[in-house]
Write a structure and sequence with these properties.
The protein is mostly helical. 53% of the residues lie in helices and 0% in strands. The protein starts with a helix and ends in an 18-residue tail after the last helix. The relative contact order is 0.15.
Length: 81
């Protein structure tokens, strides 16, 4: 799976339209569609915006490594309760 396919997979997992997904990162739905199709490059800034807004692991989005979402509880001392 390449970055374009991972972008589409992510959007579908979040159950968002291209328009809604793009609006959260100040992009149009058409721009998101073009990135998913591979006709538009996914820039470093777009990657940073997606990862920040949706708490996505950048290693997953860029290379397909690790898990999709960041572990927000890592480093916290949590008990079983």
């Amino acid at each position: 799976m390449n970055i374009h396919e991972r972008l589409k997979y992510l959007r579908e997992q979040l159950n968002l339209t291209t328009r809604a997904f793009g609006a959260a990162i100040n992009m149009s739905g058409g721009a998101i569609t073009n990135m998913e199709k591979g006709t538009r490059n996914v820039t470093d800034r777009t990657i940073r915006d997606i990862c920040r807004e949706y708490r996505v692991n950048p290693d997953w989005l860029i290379q397909g490594n690790e898990t999709v979402f960041e572990d927000l509880t890592s480093g916290l001392e949590l008990d079983d309760d």
